[in-house]
Amino acid sequence: MVIGVPTEIKNNENRVGITPGGVYELTKRGHTVYIQKDAGINSGFVNQQYIDAGANILDTIEEVYAIAQMIVKVKEPIAPEYTLIKKDQIVFTYFHFASSEPLTKAMIASGATCIAYETVEEADRSLPLLTPMSEVAGRMSIQQGARYLEKPVKGRGVLLGGVPGVSPGKVLVLGAGVVGIQAAKMAAGLGAHVTILDISMKRLRYVNDIMPPHVVTEFSNEFNIRKHIKTHDLIIGGVLIPGAKAPKLITRDMLKEMRPGTVIVDVAVDQGGCVETSKPTTHQDPVFIIDDVVHYCVANMPGAVPYTSTVALTNVTLPYVLKLADKGWETACAQDEVLKKGVNIVSGDVVYEEISEVFDIPYTPLAI
C-alpha cells in the first residue's frame, strides 16, 4: 500500500503522524511511504531520518494526498485539506467528528474511508489510541493550570503546592478517566489538595486505592460540582463519551459562583467541551476570560510537547497502521473488532451511530 504522511497544518500543531521507526516497519514489509518535506522537524525528526528508514520525501501537501492510498495524520483535516481527500482514500487520524459539523459533512462529501483514532475501542471500553494523548493532556492540564493561576496572567495568584505556613492550592478534577487520573497524579505530586468527581463508583474506588490521602473522591452530580467550584482554584474538565459530545457539567451561571482568577482547563474541548463557556483556543492564544474566570481550552494540548507525543502516539497506532496496510481496511476491520469500531464514515455513509445522532444524519450500519 502507498501511505502518505502530510505536515500538520492546524495552528501550532507540531506532531507528525509517524516516526522514522514506524516508517521502517512499513517499508520492510514492502509498503511505500511518502513523507511531506519537514513534516517531522518540529517533533525532532529530520528528513534524512525518514529517508534512511525507507521513506520518500515530497515537497507539498498536495503531492502527498494525491499519491497516497492511506493518509496517516495526527489531527483532523482542516478546511484547506478537505478538497485534497479522495474517494476511497483511507484517512487514519483523530477526527472528533461530533464537535464539527463542517468537517463531518466534508468527509461525507469526499467519499473517503475515515477511521478515527479516538473511537478504536477495546472490549472493556478502553480507547487504546486515545489513551497516550489523554495521558499527556492530563499531565499538561496541571502544568498549564498552575501557570495560569499566576497573577500576571490574571489568575488567583496561588501556588498549587503552597509553602510552609500557607495552605496548598485546591484542584477539582471532573472525571476519573485517563485524563482525570493523570491530572490528579500531577497535582498531588505538586502537593495540591485534589478533589476528583465521577459517576462511576468503580472508578472512584480505584482512585481511592491508588492515590495519596490528599486526593479525595466524591460522586459527581450538580450539587457537588456547585459546592466545590466555590472553593477550588483550578478546575480540570476531563470527561469523555466516546465519539459523542461531552456533557456540559459547568454552566454559564456557575461562573458567578467561582472566585475571581479561578482557572478552568477544559481538556474535553475537542469533543465540544464540558464547560458551557468553552470554545477551542490555540497554543498561540490559549486563554480567554469570562466573568473573571480564566479559560484554557487548547484543543491540541499534546502538540506543545511534540517529541513525547509523537513517539507515544506511534507506539499505539503503528500496529493498526500495519494491519490496514497489509490487509486493506475491510479485511483488517473484519478481523479486528477493536479497529472496526474506529470506522466512522465510509464512501459518504456515516457508520458510527453517535455521529448520526449529533447531526441528525442517517446512520448506515457497517457491512463487513
From TrEMBL:
Superkingdom in the source lineage: Bacteria
SUPFAM superfamilies: Formate/glycerate dehydrogenase catalytic domain-like, NAD(P)-binding Rossmann-fold domains
InterPro entries tied to this protein: Ala_DH, Ala_DH/PNT_CS2, AlaDH/PNT_CS1, AlaDH/PNT_N, AlaDH/PNT_NAD(H)-bd, NAD(P)-bd_dom_sf
SMART domains attached to this UniProt entry: AlaDh_PNT_C, AlaDh_PNT_N
Entry keywords, A to Z: NAD, Oxidoreductase
Gene3D superfamilies to which the protein is assigned, alphabetical: NAD(P)-binding Rossmann-like Domain
Residue ranges annotated for the Alanine dehydrogenase/pyridine nucleotide transhydrogenase NAD(H)-binding domain, each copy included: 149-297
UniProt domain Alanine dehydrogenase/pyridine nucleotide transhydrogenase N-terminal: residue ranges: 4-137
GO molecular function terms attached to this record: alanine dehydrogenase activity
EC numbers for this chain: 1.4.1.1
Reactions accelerated catalytically: L-alanine + NAD(+) + H2O = pyruvate + NH4(+) + NADH + H(+)
Top EC category: oxidoreductase
Family recorded in the similarity comment: Belongs to the AlaDH/PNT family.
Name of this protein: Alanine dehydrogenase
Organism: Dokdonia genika
Name of the gene encoding the protein in the UniProt record: ald
